[in-house]
Structures are given as structure tokens and as C-alpha cells.
UniProtKB/TrEMBL annotation, chain B:
Residues 15-36 are annotated as: Disordered. Coiled coil: none annotated. Belongs to the arginase family. This is Arginase. Signal peptide: none annotated.
Length: 326, 392
């Protein structure tokens, strides 16, 4: 793959030129860009900072790959860069690996999802303090404020689970359309494993996108649009591990880590730790590939999608709906 | 004639005379008995003026005291510049031209670009309030003609303690722009904001106006500053308006209370990361004020349960003083309350009592993350305003 090898790799993983990766392994790829961040520069330094921080964490039982950064040497054109990320994602999938993107601003998520949705319907799980559903009228531009609205128009994205919306906003964004469910941070704190899994149909493979601002900025201050009162790192880590253990994952990204705004690399460490938690449980994804269809161990948590209850405000209450289903 | 052309957009067609009935020709010129006093007044350019922009035909002048912008033709600008030093109109232009430029001079005087150079200078030359670059939440500037529900006033004073807080009002205002004050397209009333975690709309219909900052003249007698804060607050916070003070260090509390127009006794509730300081220092000082009945300090190590607010009494008038750095201060021992806990507490205060004033004080620009404290401060300010207005 035509990407330069970074000075430090994620968790010390080798590049693809050194090993033959096992089918289903995580394959890290950096997308050091901030073309879609309307607030501040710095997210482009995120991949390097996360990689550096990852080297301080305990060694993982399973290896993955780090194939470096998507090349951006030919200029800052967002569309061209996203096309390139999409192409790299496609090639990673063709090799039987799972893309793990290190952002970069959140606009990059459009690229992998726009590729992955073509082959299979998927469920997008969007951890973010914001809904990223700002108006978009179809123009050919990408920024992190409207990326989810844009992705929601992709035909293969059958379900969107937004987790972490919070703060004070101009409007009530708890309803993002028929195929979406929004779990506010205060609801997410109450979300146990079964309730979480009930929101994510078993039959649909998942793409997980993590905007680091879903975490409380007291733990992860290095991001461009922090919102107070977020999730604790361990709460998110628990949710990610639940998803990795019980749902098929097509790809993961972690975005909006901004080392320029960070305090003593705290945010990079939190980001690396979240990815470490995913990688630590990735063995379940490998086992899933080798498990025969209908394996009870994997279908134990299969919960059919349910109609959400409606709150007194007229909005769906995803947690209650999930609990009823269970 | 050259002078007249220099000052007027259009020179007279002939003979230096304007046609009869021309507004510029009206006035008492030529009649010594009814001579316009402006003709004999020494005028000069206001110190408050600054040039904002210019092109080939116009310039834009901003009055830094009022934030008023005025677009002037180049000829009017030349006329304005002629009064760079104190002088009468006839010292700027020959007598026959002076009468003709009088209307333009009057316009400049009316817009406070030219002022009487010999008018007595007030003993205290520091203005009560100054314009600021950003308004809180992008709210409109305060105007005396309207009484808003909330008046925002910055007090960038930090000489009474150790915190570096003089730039805190500016930082809070800048961060508040993420929560923009908008009017409903249909009815023109403020839209308010949606509080996601509580699932409620807040401050719908509540009007905000930003009155700028009370300037600090570093080196002046502290009593002068205290008096200026009190006067500025009393002037712009009338009727039912509730002030939101953006400090400044904790000493701002006493100065603000001095200007608060509230007939009854006040209970000052301090939400601070350092309640011992508040209770032993500022709290005792506040209790010496006639209008302060009680000081309650809530902090990291004190009871912050919502039900405690009822134990203070019934329907008290509360002046709420908040140190935004307290929220989630996990490095203190014990850790500070979470933002959610504080919002619940503030809502409980608003439900049981009446909030008559709000302030954010003690934000230290040298702290671990002043920007985050400023964002938290915006959340707490809006929550407190909601508690005062919506009384959830």
C-alpha cells in the first residue's frame, strides 16, 4: 500500500511490508487532516500523538498492523483526500483486514463509510458530543459539522446510533430521522451492555466512529469543540468493548484529537487507551469469522431492533425501548 | 470657494450660494442677534473616535465609547479632521463659508464626533462602561431605551486576590458565542436554548443585552473603582432586569452588590472551589453590608444536595456567585461537584427562591484550562439565568 511508514506505529504494530497479517486483524491508518474543522487547526497532528501515547500502554496479545498515514502531499483538496482514504479503506477490506482510522477531523468518516456501505448494509455507531447534523444541501464540500447528515443519505447506512449528544444547543436535535436514534450523555450513563446491544441490530455489521469530544473535557481537553459533562473514559471503553465482543465490526475511527489544545498529552492518552481496549478484545472479532453460522455463543446477545418508547417530550427514549425488548 | 468644496459633497452651482430653501442654507447665519452658539463654540474631535475603514468615497468612524458606527463622506471626514485641535468654525473656514458648513458641523456634534472643547472635564475621566469586542452569546448591546430581562456587565478587576482574572470576561464572552442568542423568525422573540441533558427549552422569550465592561484604571483608588461598578450597575440594571456580572476576582462581589437595586435583604450564595476563603474572607466582608443578610458558601467539601436550599428559608432573594472552575475539579480533594450536580442545585435554588443577581468570578487565566472553565461558566450562567427566569 502506498503510504509512508510513520516514525512511531500504533502499539508498536508492524507495517504490512514486514508481516503477512492474519485475516480479520486491525489495520491502523492515519488521516492527518483538519480541512473539515471549522473551529481550529491541530487535529492533523492527532494520529502521531495517539501513536506516541499508545507506546506507553501494555503490550497487546494480538498484533495488528499500522500502515502509516494516507498521503496528503499533493495538496489540501478535501475531496481528493477523502477519495484516497476511501480507496485505502477499500484495499484494507479486500485484504480481509479491518480499518482503524486515526483522525484527523470528523469529516474523514465520510470516506470509509461511503466505501463500506456499498458492499453491505451497516449500522453506524456515532460517539460524539454533537450530532454533526448541521444543514447540508448537497454541495460537494465536507466539514465536521454536517458529516453525519451527509452519511445518513448513504443508502447502505440502515441505522444510526448517536451516543453522547449533550450540552446547550440552538435546537432540539434528539430526533435525526427514522433510522436514527440519539442517546444523550445523561441517558448513555445509564446504558448497560444489554441496553446498548438492543440499540444495535445483531444482523447488521457496525462501523464505529469515535469523536474524542464524547469524553468529558476534564479527561480529554485536547479537542476543538469541548462540551462539559461528558462520558468518563471508562464508560466509553466499556461500551466499545461490549460492541467488539458482541457485534460484527467493519471499521473503527477515532477523530478530533487535537494535540495543540491538549494538556500534557492527556487526550492522546485517553484516545490510545480507548483503542487499546478495542484491540484487547479484538480476538472476539477473529473468532466470529471462524465461528459457524448460528453459533449460540455469538447470538446470545442478538436482540431484534425495537420500536423506541416515546418520552413526555415526544421523543424516543432509546434506553427504555431497549430494556423493554430485553 | 476651495475650502467649501473641500468640506461639502457638492459645491454650490455658482456664486457660492445655496438655493433658497436648501436645508444647508437654513439657520441663523447673518443675524448677529440670533447667531447660532455653535459658531462661537470651540470644537474638537472626540477622543473616543477611531477610524474603522475607508475607501475612495467614504470612511467609517466608530465611537469606541458607544460602539456606534457612522459612515461619512470624504468631505465630512475632512471637515471633522479640521477640528483636530480646539477651534471655532470661523477658524476653520472663512466667515461666508462657515455659515454654509454649519449644518454639517451640527451633524458631527449631534453624533458626538465633535465635542465642546471648553466644556468642564469631569473629575473622574474614566468612563462608566466601555464597549467590548464580543457580546455575551452575541446578544445586542445594552440600550437605555429598553429594559432587558438580563443585563451582562463585565468587571475585569483582579487586584484583590491572587487569581489572574482580568481577561476572564473577554474569554467568557468569546466562548459564549457558541451559544448564540437568536430571535424566532416568526414572532421575533428570543428563541432561548435547548438544554439537552434536562431535555427542556430554557430562556425562551428572555431578552439579553450586553452593557460592556466597567473599565479598571490601574493605579486608581479602589474606592473609585467600587463606586464606578456600583454606579454602572445601578444605571443599566433597572426595572426587573437581573444582572449577570462577568468577573474579575472574588472582590467583584462586594462592588456589584453595592449597585444592585433590590429593596430587600439579600442572601449571597457562593459556589466556589475555595469555600473556606469565601467564608473567612469575602464572606465576612459581605456581611458588613446592610443589604446582605446571609452568606452561604457551597463548595467541594460542603453539602450541595438540592434539598439543602430549602433549609435556608423561604423565597429568599439570592445573589448567586459562581466560580466556574469548581465544576468537576477532579484535582481538588475532595473532587468538586459535577456540572450536572451544579445545574441541579442552581435549578433548585431558582425553584425555591428568587435569583436577583448572578456573577461568574474567580476564573484564573493561569489555571490548568481557563478555556474549559470559561465554557463551563457559560453553561452555569445560562443555567442560573434559566433558574431565575424559567423557575424550573
Amino acid at each position: 500500500m502506498d503510504v509512508p511508514v510513520p516514525p512511531a506505529s500504533l502499539f508498536g504494530w508492524p507495517g504490512c511490508q514486514h508481516v503477512s497479517p492474519e485475516i480479520g486483524a486491525l489495520c491502523a491508518i492515519g488521516a492527518p487532516t483538519d480541512h473539515g474543522n471549522v473551529i481550529s487547526r491541530g487535529a492533523s497532528r492527532g494520529p502521531a500523538a495517539i501513536r506516541r501515547a499508545s507506546l506507553q500502554l501494555p503490550e497487546l496479545r494480538l498484533d495488528g498492523l499500522d500502515i502509516g498515514d494516507v498521503d496528503r502531499s499533493d495538496g489540501p483538496d478535501p475531496q481528493r483526500y477523502l477519495d484516497r482514504i476511501a480507496a485505502v479503506t477499500q484495499r484494507i477490506r479486500e485484504r480481509g483486514l479491518c480499518p482503524l482510522l486515526l483522525g484527523g477531523d470528523h469529516s474523514i468518516t465520510y470516506a470509509p463509510v461511503s466505501t463500506l456501505h456499498r458492499s453491505r448494509e451497516l449500522c453506524l455507531i456515532w460517539f460524539d458530543a454533537h450530532t454533526d447534523f448541521s444543514p447540508w444541501s448537497g454541495q460537494n464540500f465536507h466539514n465536521h459539522k454536517q458529516v453525519l447528515r451527509r452519511i445518513s443519505k448513504l443508502g447502505g447506512v440502515s441505522r444510526i446510533v448517536q451516543i453522547g449528544y449533550r450540552g446547550i444547543t440552538a435546537g432540539d436535535e434528539r430526533s435525526l430521522g427514522a433510522k436514527s436514534v440519539v442517546v444523550t450523555t445523561s441517558c448513555a450513563r445509564e446504558l448497560d451492555a444489554q441496553a446498548l446491544l438492543a440499540l444495535v441490530p445483531y444482523a447488521l455489521p457496525c462501523y464505529i466512529s469515535i469523536d474524542i469530544d464524547v469524553i468529558d473535557p476534564l479527561w480529554a481537553p485536547g479537542t476543538s469543540a469541548p462540551v462539559p459533562d461528558g462520558l468518563l473514559p471508562d464508560q466509553l471503553k466499556g461500551m466499545l468493548q461490549t460492541l467488539v465482543r458482541h457485534r460484527e465490526i467493519l471499521g473503527v475511527d477515532l477523530v478530533e484529537v487535537n494535540p495543540v489544545l491538549d494538556l500534557e498529552a492527556a487526550t492522546s492518552r485517553v484516545a490510545a487507551d480507548l483503542l487499546h481496549g478495542i484491540a484487547e478484545h479484538w480476538v472476539h472479532q477473529r473468532l466470529r469469522r471462524s465461528a459457524p453460522a448460528g453459533d449460540a455463543a455469538f447470538e446470545a446477545f442478538a436482540v431484534a431492533p425495537v420500536a423506541c418508547e416515546t418520552t413526555r417530550h415526544g421523543h424516543p427514549d432509546p434506553i427504555q425501548g431497549a430494556r423493554n425488548a430485553i | 470657494m476651495a475650502i467649501l468644496e473641500a468640506f461639502c459633497d457638492e459645491a454650490p452651482a455658482s456664486g457660492g450660494e445655496y438655493p433658497a430653501g436648501d436645508a444647508r442654507h437654513s439657520g441663523p447665519q447673518g443675524d448677529p442677534a440670533g447667531a447660532d452658539p455653535l459658531l462661537t463654540t470651540r470644537l474638537m474631535v472626540s477622543d473616543d473616535l477611531a477610524l474603522e475603514s475607508q475607501d475612495d468615497t467614504h470612511i467609517v468612524v466608530i465611537n469606541t465609547a458607544s460602539s456606534a458606527r457612522t459612515k461619512l463622506s470624504l468631505s465630512a471626514y475632512r471637515l471633522l479632521k479640521a477640528f483636530a485641535r480646539p477651534c471655532r468654525i470661523d477658524q476653520v473656514a472663512p466667515a461666508q463659508v462657515a455659515a454654509q458648513i454649519l449644518p454639517q458641523v451640527r451633524m458631527l456634534v449631534d453624533k458626538q464626533m465633535l465635542v465642546d472643547a471648553d466644556a468642564p472635564v469631569p473629575a473622574d475621566t474614566v468612563r462608566l462602561r466601555t464597549a467590548v469586542a464580543y457580546k455575551f452569546c452575541g446578544a445586542p448591546a445594552y440600550a437605555k431605551s429598553k429594559i432587558p430581562d438580563f443585563v451582562i456587565l463585565g468587571v475585569p478587576y483582579d487586584l484583590a486576590g491572587e487569581t489572574d482574572s482580568r481577561l476572564a470576561p473577554a474569554l467568557i464572552r468569546r466562548k459564549s458565542l457558541d451559544y448564540s442568542y437568536q430571535l424566532d423568525f416568526g414572532d421575533g422573540r428570543p428563541r432561548g436554548w435547548f438544554d439537552v441533558n434536562r431535555g427542556v427549552w430554557m430562556l425562551r422569550g428572555a431578552t439579553l443585552a450586553d452593557a460592556g465592561d466597567v473599565p479598571v484604571d490601574y493605579g486608581e483608588n479602589r474606592a473609585c473603582w467600587v463606586e464606578r461598578v456600583g454606579t454602572a450597575l445601578a444605571e443599566c440594571c433597572t426595572g426587573h432586569s437581573v444582572p449577570l456580572i462577568l468577573g474579575g476576582d472574588r472582590s467583584v462581589t462586594g462592588a456589584a452588590l453595592g449597585g444592585l437595586r433590590h429593596p430587600g435583604k439579600l442572601t449571597v450564595v457562593q459556589i466556589t472551589a475555595d469555600p473556606e476563603h469565601a467564608a473567612d474572607g469575602a464572606g465576612r466582608h459581605l456581611l458588613r453590608m446592610d443589604k446582605v443578610e446571609r452568606v452561604v458558601s457551597l463548595g467541594a467539601c460542603l453539602d450541595r444536595r438540592p434539598e439543602t436550599v430549602r433549609a435556608w428559608g423561604d423565597a429568599l432573594s439570592i445573589y448567586l456567585s459562581i466560580d466556574p472552575s469548581i465544576a468537576g475539579a477532579r484535582w481538588t480533594a475532595p473532587p468538586g461537584p459535577t456540572l450536572h450536580e451544579l445545574k441541579v442545585l442552581i435549578a433548585a435554588i431558582g425553584k425555591v427562591h428568587r435569583i436577583v443577581g448572578i456573577e461568574l468570578v474567580g476564573l484564573d487565566m493561569r489555571s490548568r484550562s481557563p478555556e474549559l472553565a470559561a465554557i463551563t461558566g457559560c453553561h452555569l450562567a445560562l443555567a442560573a439565568m434559566s433558574a431565575a427566569h424559567d423557575r424550573f
